[in-house]
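anyone else get weird line breaks when pasting these?? whatever heres mine. first is seq + tokens for prot A
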Amino acid sequence: MLDLIWLIPALPLAGFLIVLVLGRKLGEPRAGYVATLMTASAFVVTVGVFIDLLSKTSHDRSHVYTLFSWIPAGNLTVDLAFLADPLSITMALFVTGIGSLIHLYSIGYMHGDPKFSKFFLYLNLFVFSMLMLVLGENMLVTFLGWEGVGTCSYLLISFWHSRESAATAGKKAFVTNRVGDWGFMVAMFFTFQALGTLSYGPLNEAASHGGIAQSTATMIALMLFVGAVGKSAQLPLYLWLPDAMEGPTPVSALIHAATMVTAGVYLMVRTAPVLAIAAWHWAPWIVAGIGAATALYAALVAVAQNDIKKVLAYSTVSQLGYMFLAVGSGAYVAAIFHMVTHAFFKALLFLGSGSVIHGMNSEQDMRRMGALRKLMPITGFTFIIGWLAIAGVPPFAGFWSKDEILLFAWNKSPILWVVGLVTALLTAYYMTRQVIMVFYGKARWNDHAEENGAHGDVHPHESPVTMLLPLVVLAGLSIVGGLIQLPFSHGTKRLEMWLEPVIETAESPLKAGSEDIKWILAGVAVAIGLIGITAAYMVYSKKKVKAIEPNLLANAWYYDKGVSALMGGPGRKSFDAVAWFDSHIIDGAVNGTGKLVQGVAGIVRKGQNGLVRTYAALIGVGAVAVIAWFVFRGVAQ
């Protein structure tokens, strides 16, 4: 099966081509079924490759399959090659698996949309790009997928581009990600300069055995982190992700749960040995610090949001911050563990929110919901499971992965642990707030009938089977997902044993004492989560305490508005000044040189007129000039 790894990205690509050529003829729902079948087939192949790898010994679980030599240019040779190892196949499993569920869900969600087949065209292209990213044997193949998901995110976020807000959100995502792409490219330049290759194997080998200078490793690690900050929406480049809610809800689930935003975390774990030796650990401190700050910042903002999808968007930013906190703390297994469990419960929550929006006639304001649990029982039940998982309630999946990150944060610094703990408290609080506002309390959906406009009177109803089936599957995964990495013994840490060949030289060991108090820390984390749930219950259900939702948090600390004001004011003027300097000074110098040469050539050309007397005169002038030169030279001597 290892030699069939190329089929994993090839199948979604084939789906893209089929829908591209036959999409209109296939129509609804057949175009959706074709796209779903191609993604599900890729999942089946991925499972086969996983089983094949599992049958091998630990250090034989790495296989490179080369399709062809892509770029042979001087000393640079880049193969279009795929790498099958525990990390890439773990990523491919949940990209294709959850991607298939999102495709199936979309068949019901996008029912009746005039661009139904085009939506699935973009979805298949997105999955293909993400698979190229995670399966790439070298940085350039990864970068091909990296740019592909960036382009597809623009197409999907602005899918309903007739809405100005959707078109603007797509452009913001595209432009913001270009900043991160710059960092990735600079990292590639330094890697090739240092090693003469872009392959991950030689890079990690050199980092593990002292074959690369620490200063170079630091630059590569930090530039890769810049790329990761853009793609995985960390401070200060997070601002594209909340606006990405303008796309259809399956897009939100695909981008925010299983694919694009996890790419940055994947890239950092893939190059973990480089980060581990970078500048005596101050570079990992930067990663951990920005991750912790992002986690806390976004959790605070989520507390005051009223759009059902915006709450989940800021929650995604916060949970990604948790993953970077793990990476910076040297907990690479914990980062991947939380990435997997987050893919389960966040995809569930986003698809659940889409089911609510579908049943509420496109209403997204939680203040106009309430009491939906009885009218949408399956959606409500599965959403509550997702809430318990993200809130860190045992034994749901989110508890195990979040607890492991907090353990390593304590191992690195108690300050980071406190920030992570406060974030966990806020997460439990704002998710409980969301569940109460949407599924419990008083029914408020027709309280503002005159304000509903195009929504009209709302009659909540349950979603079709194609939308509910993915919710049930993801709810099951959100319950049992923690089984892949339980902390009881080495034998129950299945994910750690699986990933060991990839990160064994980079994973930070726990300090003396950290292992001994891990159950105390886990108990504190559970207590903090329960406090957050209780506080939200008292505020939003019992109304015992007044809700604190300041405009500062509702407007995300005015950071986005500040950036927009800067870019639209002084920023635009400075860009115009740069453009003027480029067109008048830089281009002016180039064009002026050309005109000068053209003018001199025009004068010289007049002497080349074909008349013998002109040539004789020129020869005479030349002879006089030569004689004058010798005369003056003699006088000077």
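and prot B, same format (seq, then tokens)
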Amino acid sequence: MSRSGGQRLLAVVAALCLSAGDGCSRRAPDDGGRKILRIAYEREIDVLNLFTSQNLVDISFSMVEGLVTTDDHGRYVPVLAKEIPTVENGGVTLREDGTVDMTWHLHEGVRWHDGEPFTSADVCFTWRFVTSPGSETYNREQYMGIKACESPDAGTVVFRWDGQYAYYAGLFEGILPEHVFRGLTATQIVRHEGYNRGPQTIGTGPFKFAEWKTGEYIRVVKNRDYWRGRELPKIDEIVWAFIPDANTRLLALRSGAHHFGRILPTQVAAAGSLPESHVHLVNTNAVLHLELGVKTPHGKRLFSDPRVRRALFHAVDRDAIAKKLMEGTVKVADSPLNFESPYVTADGAAFTYDPALAARLLDEAGWTRGLGGVRQKEGERMSFTFLNRAGQTDRALVAQVIQMELRAIGVETSLDTLESAAWSQRWRSGKWEAIVSAFILPADPTLTSLFACDGSNNMTGECDPALDEVLKTSDHALTFAIRAPLLARAQRRLVDTARLLPLFYNVTPELVSTRVKGYHGSGTNFGSFWNLWSWELGAP
């Protein structure tokens, strides 16, 4: 946003404040002396089960802990585990038959929110659920190399892997309570209303579930028996208020009624002048991209030819999107891996902006202009729909820009915007044709779940056996020297087959009150609430 644009937004915000009758003063709500952290959250989530949710799981992480998390430097750090096993510390043992034993030692004295002890049996139960066919876990295949889980005692877990896997330290980001789900099938756990929406959403974390008011907020309260110490956490309560509209969210943050919220890159200039808060530009481990689906008969007829996919990608001006629409706050991407990753390749622009080339490729593929200038082939119109998620304003704007650019080469599109839960259901079903989306990768990246034929997050229906072989081989490489060339080949193959169009590397601006202490923004899939147990809320 230009400076004048930021000033206009502030003027609109000010006008809205005046119409509200309170001038949007920065008076904090009267919480009766309780330290209540108020978060302006960008959407209402689908479920609280972090293994099956298709949203960010920030709220779940306030209650549910795992063996590990990721800090603000992209490093895996232990949580319920005392340390991350390695060959050096004796936790990883390579066996003569090629299998690997991995031993995790757990903290003592940890209890679930209902008072039941947390033990190694809960970890093995979580593994059994995740690897079950009906678990619907977003990264299920990453756990499939574990062939056995043993609990020699309450504080020790031993995994038997069928070989070496590079990403093992990033698994088990959450643990499920066996005693809550005992006797249920994976499908029944997935559909468990009491856990998905509370009040049976229990964990070992610093906060406990209190209330979910549909369409308004989720409220969690301090766990007074938290295993890190009775003095922690230092916040009494968190209210996650659902405010999907970006301008309304900025207004709420400006009013002082909320202490944390994510805003759009186009709002940074306006938010930067707000008092008693700071804008943190968090470089997320995610790439906004355009994907095309071939699971529907219509999508298959449109996009099965790689020339068509390549044509559509060459019609998109990514530089203009990054510099003008996103106002220079983001960097154009050519890989699904973050530009700071040591595994990313630098082969130059994957798909240059070239509308003339796009038109020629469509002509070659047999898609010629017909009635109204829209291309057609054998009676089929080159017409499809973008699936958008409510609350993702930046992605909707990008889809609108792409819509205009595709129209110039004779491609007709429409936009279908759904609420978060409905969007997730449609996306998982594969009943869509185009999407502007982003996947947040773990600190140690694997692309298998996204692009393998049987990948748990490959909802496009695309299948490339040659790519599968490279991806799965890379997953078994523990050393950078072996793994890096394999991931380089995988990235090249994604370009050669026009599998997706990387648009730009996501930057998430987070507006944080100066009252909040302990915040350290993180751009991995574990997010900025990774150390919520240590946050403090100072006096207004």
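btw re prot B: The CA atoms of residues 451 and 458 lie 6 Å apart. The longest strand covers residues 277-292.
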